[in-house]
Amino acid sequence: MALRVQRVSAQLVPVLSLSLRTSWSVEHVREVEVARPPCDAASITQLPGLSWKHSLRDFKPVEVDAGASASGARTRPKQAEPKTAREARYAAQSLPAPEASGNPVAPLVREFIEIFPEKAPAILPPDRGVRREIDLTPGAKYCVTRQWPLPRDQTAAIDAFFESRHRAGHVRESVTPHCSPTFCVKKATGGWRFVHAFNKLNDATIPAQTPIPRKEMVLDTMSGSTQYSAIDLMDGFYQILMREDDVPLTAVSTPSGMLWEWLVMPQGLKNAPATFNRMVSNLLRPLQSFAPSYFDDIFIHSRAEGGMTDVEVHLEHLRQVFQVMRDNQLYANLKKCIFCAPEIPVLGSYVSMNGVRADLVKIEAICAWSTPQDQKQLRQWLGLATYLHNYSKNFASTVRPLLQLLKADTTWSFRPEQHAAFDATCLSTAPVLMLLDHSKLFHVVCDANDFAIGCALIQFDYEGRERMVSCQSRQLKPAERNYPVHDKELLAMRYALIKFRVYLLEPPPAPAHGALVSLLSEYNFVVHYKPGKSNILADALSRRPDYDPRTQWGCHAVGDDEDDEECAVCLAERVAAVETAATSPLRDAIAAAYEHDAACSDMVKYLRAPSDSARRRLSPRSRSRVDRYAMDRDLLTYCVDRTDTPRIVVPLDDDLRARIIHEFHDSPSAGHLGREKTFATLSRDFYWPHMYKWVRK
């Protein structure tokens, strides 16, 4: 407001120049003549030019944004994605995109195109065996909230919305004593989002105890898969019928004076997400081994099996899921679906055949966070950083100096130790977790220090590398910090067993071991290890020459150095040496067996004489990994990565593979190690698919 004085009729008359600016940047200027300047707020509000009726006449409909309000920027809608960028993203995920790129799922999507509509059909959904039920607490009264007035354009939008739902059979007029108001929220992409204020109804509703799928359980089913798809269901809340007795409770009012009640489950009801999740889980229960669901997301994963490739199996799995959706009139948003991909996002992580990795966007957000200035900012960062506690070793020890600043009696002081803990370098290099394989043994490593304990669940992958499945850590309580070292170690073991209990309880004893376990349970004994040189009697009895199975292979024990070249272990150690003997029985056997293995034979021919025709004869898997193969004279070698030592590729010959495993396990130089150590030693020098299964046999 500005005050200026001008001369009117030979006297000075104060003129107030009033500048009114609304929150949507529309400015109105009015000049008001007064006899004397106002001296307080009360006299200013009494000016005739500031009458609310006078002000409303100056507002034109074209000048007012439908999403504006008196609260200013707090309710201003967030910045929408540019239309051109959004259209480009949607075009890349529409049906023509996979068809143009040759995605094998495109014909299948075209066959089931009715489950991928632009908008969900405006019809009453079928009864799928699950209805939305509202159970009120005993003694609950009528749930009534008065409808407040809304601008004319919002009222018109609400009326149009309910008219369309009425034609679809989703709502009907009501005379119930219950009533909840309706209002609008501006969408970032334009238009209105309609909201029902079911506050009183939700307060009187008994919470549902429907279990929510755990992320770990969803990920555990994906071990060993190589093809992945993700389906996003559309308009889930309008796809479930209401229980008839509970329809009156859903009554909502409109600013125009109508009272509607929902025949389908609307948004905003308590327990609605759990009901929708229960419906999807019930429909997909027969397919849950390869199609786990999480609310409106369905994750399909497949691997090669039954003589079919992974793509063929995956297409069959997709067909079964699509058929369930067609039979039950469930619809998906094609623009948000992912099909036949090597990696998909799953509940905040990314899953592929290599394992589970953290979302790089979230890691970047953690690393780019500015240094906290107070406890509130530190709590915000810790809440985000906790996302990586499953990926980061010793997470509790790392953030311990920061947690000290959250104590009530601590003065805020960000010292060098806090800066070191805040450094997100260790978090930004979070490892890729292995998807656990229930057919392999689990290894648990744990450790304890003066202020924290940690543990990790370990498995060996199909390449023989030690991979982390999960890791956990926590700080020690004040009393636990006084424990002796051995008690802290025991505490770490107990913590590991509790955290990984669901995995360590399985697999159960094999049928062949059941009788042995039952027999041993009757005795009270302690097992001590006794080296073979000290266990002379039992060792001699177990090594009778007539019991030696190596006579079946024509092998003999390694005596002196002149026989070393016939040992598989020695051959592997000297495969890259120039002085390797030109003639070796095992080397010749491996090289000769390449001719009887089509995959190895094609790879050997391609490496010796590279050509386009020879490359086309390779399988898709071999073609994608051709840079990992090489020839060492007459032997084919394979490297897992560039830093890996070349391994001898053993062709598909059961007798040859059994002989190599026998020498790595039973020969004197092998040491008769256990299954895991034998596999780890063997996989360093030799390679063939499914090697672990051979060792396990």
Automatic annotation (TrEMBL):
This is Reverse transcriptase domain-containing protein. Residues 67-87 are annotated as: Disordered. GO terms for molecular function: catalytic activity. It comes from Phytophthora cactorum. The lineage of its organism: Eukaryota, Sar, Stramenopiles, Oomycota, Peronosporomycetes. Residues 166-386 form the Reverse transcriptase domain. Keywords: Multifunctional enzyme. SUPFAM superfamilies: DNA/RNA polymerases. Residues 78-87 have a biased composition (Basic and acidic residues). Pfam families: Integrase_H2C2 (PF17921), RT_RNaseH_2 (PF17919), RVT_1 (PF00078).
